[in-house]
Every structure is written in C-alpha cells, then in structure tokens.
Amino acid sequence: MEGRYTHPAIERYAVIAHAQTEQNNPNEWNDKIALAQEMLPLIGRLHRNNDVVVSVFGRLLVGATDIDIIKSHRYARRVTERELPLTQTLPVLRELLEMNLGTASIDIGSLAIGFADSDSDDLSAYLEAELAEIVGTHKKVDPTDVVLYGFGRIGRLLARILISREATYGGVRLRAVVVRKNSDDDLVKRASLLRRDSVHGAFDGTITVDKENDIIWANGTKIQVIYSNSPAEVDYTAFGIHDAIVVDNTGRWRDRAGLSQHLESKGVDRVVLTAPGKGDLLNVVYGINHDKITDDEQIITAASCTTNGITPVLKVLNDAYGVEHGHVETVHSFTNDQNLIDNFHSGSRRGRAAGLNMVLTETGAAKAVSKALPEFEGKLTGNAIRVPTPDVSMAVLNLTLENEVDRDEVNDFLRKVSLHSDLRQQISYIHSPEIVSTDFIGSTHAGVVDGLATIVSGKHLVVYVWYDNEFGYSNQVVRIIEEVAGARPQIYPRRQDATALR
How does pLDDT run across 382-437, given as a tens digit for each residue? Predict the structure, then answer.
C-alpha cells in the first residue's frame, strides 16, 4: 500500500479501501453506496449555500444520484489508470464545506489527485492555497435575461440547457420565447415539443401551460411566449425583460443589417446568432476565440455545429505538430432543411428523400475555421455527406503535418488535452471498439476524438471526430451566452494550456 495514499487526512479511509480491494470484500459495493450517499448532502449544501458546483474530472455532480457519483469516480481510470476511491474525495468535500467559497465549479477529483501528488500533508492548507481566489468571495448576483427568438430544434435544446443552468449557476435566466403563431393551440404544441423529444428524450422536470397569459412554466421557470412577425417590433420591457441577450436561432438573418433589427426592440442589449454570420460579424467558437468578445460587440455569431466540432481539435493539432493543409469530410445527420420524400428543393440534391439517401452536399465549415483561427486561412477544403440518422455527426480530418508523427503519441496527446486542458469542455476522447453514433447523443462537448480510428503514415494524419450536432452545439452556444453575460463559472483547479500537455 506504500505510496498509494500517503496523507493523514485520508489515511484511515485509504486503509478501508485497500482492504476492500485486496480481499475482494463482498460488501464493497454497499460500502461505495454508503460513501456516495454521505457525499450527496454535502454536494447539495455546497450548491445551496455557496453556488459551488462539484465535478469529478469534468463529470458534473448536479442532481446526481449515488450511482452517478460512483460512476464518476470510475471514470477517473482515464486519468489515473485506476478507479478513484470515494474515500479520497470525501475528505475534500468535507473541507470545502468549512471554507467560505464563492461561486465556482470545483473538480474534487483533480483536487484529490493533486493533493495526493503534492508534498503537503495538510489537506486544509492545500485547498486554501488552490482555491485562494474564491475564498470569502461569495455574493449573489442578478441573472441576465435571455430571450430565444425561434423555437425549433436548437431553440428547444437551448431552453432545456438554460433552465438547467439557471438552477445550477444562476447567472443567466430564460425569460421569453418569440415565435410566429401557427395555430389556435400553438402554445400547447410548443410546450409539448419542449416536453418530449424523439432524439433527446423527455424533459427532465415538469412543464405546465398558462393559456390565458401565454406562459410556459418549466421547473419553476416562467417562459413568456411572445407572438411576433418582426424582430424589431417587440417591447420586451412590457414583460419585465431588460438588457436582454436575444438568441436568434431562426437562421433567417445572418448579416449585421438583418440581426440589428433585434436591437431596435425595447429591452434588448446583445444578439447571439446560432449560425455562421456573414460580413464583418464576429464568429465565435467557444474555447478558441471567445476572448475576442468585447462590450462593443453587440452581435455575435456562434458559427456552425461542424465548425465548433472540428476547430478545437484542429487548433491543438496545429499548435503541437503544425498543419500544412488538409481536407475535412463530414458525415452529417439529416436536418430540417431536407425533404422527407423526393420533392423540389432550391438546394442541390437536398430535395431527395433524407431518410433513404446519402446526400452529397457542400459545407462552409472548413473555410469558417479560419474565422476563429486565422492561421488556417487557405489550408482546408471540405465537403459533407448527409446520412439517414436524426442526430450525431462525424468529421474526418485528413491532414498533412509539418513533421512525421506517431499514432500513439497523437492519441495520448489528445487524451491528455481532453482531461487536463482548458479545452476539456470542447474536446473529449474515447478509445472503444464498440462505439457508434447513438452513444454520443447528449454529449456536451463540441467534439469527441475516436482514438481507435486515428490513422498515421509519416506526415499524414487522419483523425475522426464525433459530435452531437444538436446538443453539443447548443452547449457551445450557451457558453457564449454566459460569456456575453459575464456569468461563466470559474473552474478550479485551473486547467492547463493544451500545448503544455504534449
């Protein structure tokens, strides 16, 4: 047991854990359950009293069950090559409760491992040093109002995420949805589509409808449904909405002139577009160039799902190995703009039945990468194949590098980036022979590298990246919304720059 758990603060628990493992104790599972159940109220108190959200190597323990806690500790094998004992994180939780912490997202897995690897034998002192920036800083802030203009696939997922994030962090709150009225029972239909989704499952909570006042109540969040045909004619202040961020997910307007119509409405401060913007608009891929957002930028675009899926991976590969040129081929799930059966369509090939065909089409994602990463200007080409699946897509990055690389080296680098870097929310990594597209439905990452599919031949590198083109992208959009609102949670321990992990 020497060298595995070396600090007095966790020694007693380590002895128990070691005994359970070595003697194959039949009660080991029950002991884990007991420890997890002891952790649950501690996690709840940190959230209620300090607005602190707890995670284990990026796996949030928000509304977690005892099983979720155990699974998150098993996930640590990707980091430590062994399961992280709950006995190692429980003391960390107890110490956190004794500290007057400000709002933050705290990874107790990373803290526990960091303490075990440190020279300190005082857990309290170690945590005080690691979390010095947020000790004694807790204060309540008024959340920023958010309005969804449009309520389609992305709009409804944004609503789900925003409702959850408000309960978790409180920095932004969904106040209204603006749509065109399509029928007398429009409100009921909108609520029903929010409640049930054929791809993403049922809404996690309760939804009720106030027909008289055009309100959808979702987990206690009051969502005012506003019927309007023009982005410039809504008086949001009449509904108590002020300085709002309007998220346009209709795709009707993609240039400054069209999107500026939102700014003519009373109560609007900023606009975020859930599509690639045209002209001089700032196209943002969160994690890559969100630092370019300033108070002067009133209109920001969140690029496309594919651009978000590939740009973070391309950045770290270019920083580490140098990309001379490449081709991006996306295998993309069908979308609403395609026809269900053969019919006229203004776009080439998109008129053919989406559920029966692979449809070759164009994508601007490869060129759009250079809007977030100027160093890729002129280096990438791209195409897309639409396939008969409703969600989750794949990008094949076919790259020529400046120098020869080794497959295991590249995979190990991308794995470390997914675990330890400041792009951990954007890049995930998986190494499984049984993974298929449906396994990534609900992924919150911009993209997930499939390590088993990586191909290397000298300077030639092929990397396969899965991405939930609906939910993963929507999470990237929400990160931009929170950045614009100044409501992004601080994450501790601080993550490393990806280039330092090579």
Answer: 999 999 999 999 999 999 999 999 999 999 999 999 988 999 999 999 999 999 99
**334 within some domain:** yes
- Token pair in block for residue 372: 């977030």
Helix ranges, 337-427 (H): 365-372, 407-420
The answer to whether position 480 is within a domain reads: no
Residue 237 neighbours by CB distance under 10 Å:
14
Query: How many Å apart are CA 190 and CA 208, to the nearest integer?
Result: 11
Angle at the Cα of 429 (from 442 to 163), degrees rounded to 5?
Answer: 30
- In 274-322, DSSP assigns E strands to 282-283, 299-301
* 396 within some domain: yes
221 pairs with which residues across the strands? 218
Query: What is the distance between the alpha carbons of residues 253 and 12, in angstroms, rounded to a whole number?
Result: 62
- Looking at the structure, tell me whether residues 453 and 392 fall in a common domain: yes
- Alpha helix stretches (DSSP H) within 75-152: 77-80, 86-97, 108-117, 123-130
How much helix, strand and coil, in percent to the nearest 5, is found in the chain? Answer: 40, 25, 40
Per the structure, the count of domains in the chain is 3
Catalytically active residues are 305
Q: How far is CA 405 from CA 144, 458, 465, 501, in A?
A: 46, 6, 19, 16
Question: What are the DSSP E strand ranges found in 312-459?
Answer: 323-333, 359-361, 380-387, 393-401, 427-430, 447-450, 455-457
For tokens 């309290």, the residue is 124
Backbone angles phi and psi of 175, in degrees to 5? -110, -35
- DSSP SS3 for 378: coil
- CA Rg value for the chain: 24
- Are 324 and 448 contained in the same domain? yes
301 within some domain: no
Q: CB of 97 within 8 A of CB of 45?
A: yes
Question: Rounded distance, CA 326 to CA 367, Å?
Answer: 11
Q: What is the pTM of this model?
A: 0.90
